[in-house]
TrEMBL record:
Coiled coil: none annotated. It comes from Polypedilum vanderplanki (Sleeping chironomid midge). InterPro entries: 5-3_exonuclease_C_sf, PIN-like_dom_sf, XPG/Rad2, XPG_DNA_repair_N. The keyword Transcription regulation does not apply. The keyword Kinase does not apply. This is XPG N-terminal domain-containing protein. Residues 4-91 form the XPG N-terminal domain. One of its GO terms (molecular function) is 5'-flap endonuclease activity.
Amino acid sequence: MKTVGVTKIKNIKNYFGEKIGIDIYYALSKFVYTLDEKETKLTDNDGNPTTHLKRIFDGTKGLLMNGIKPVYIFYEQSKVFSTCSAYNSQIISSVEINEIKRLLTYLGIPFVNSISECTILLKTKEIYGVATSEENQKSFGAKILLRDLPFQEKTKTLMTEVHFNEVSSFADKDQKIELKWRQPDEENLIKFLCNEKQFNEENLCKGIKKIKESLIKFRQTTLHQYFKKGKKQQMKK
DNA sequence: CCTCTGGCCTGAGACGTG
DNA sequence: ACACGTCC
DNA sequence: ACTTCAGGCCAGAG
């Protein structure tokens, strides 16, 4: 499919403190697909896959370390056109989805459970843009699609935005959803990932430490961020 | 002679270690 | 730099 | 809408 939107490439540094929505299937797509193809599948002791948990933990860590605040968008996979369909020939099971929600809760990362909530977040400028497939852009109500997200903690410096004029979803003006990014719940993370899912505790704690350091960085620059936002709003007028 | 852009094609993870 | 093994 | 995304390569334009 040909891109209808206008593409802009920006340095990741420009997104510091930015809140963005991420289609959960978009976040999972590549990683789950390629890893599950391999012989060395990642599983817990019962043989249940754990690739989805590793992806979301590592990916979220990477985003936070790059200064981006994610909110994950959950929805019925059949509700929209085949999101990332080539990768997602496999349907992510509801068990895995619920495990991811549990993980996000312990991580202190917000998520919403429907496309309409995503639309509200965009309408109220609670989030800047959404990472999803181009097919879903209109129904999500996203004028800005995000690409090349830094799910890894290193190497990436550039991120792509695709701007669109049209959306097909509209939210009620009065509705508002408040998002909160909390401190990770270390105890429950260890219980869940290490005791139940056989993650290496040392590695996990290192990861949690990096997430906490990122959150401190956010707090330190709150004032700067506030100023930046004000400036942006002025420019729009 | 360049630099840049766009179209076409292709392959598909992240990270640490040696 | 590159190739390879691990991650769970 | 109905096989995606992103990066590399190369031809053609400016």
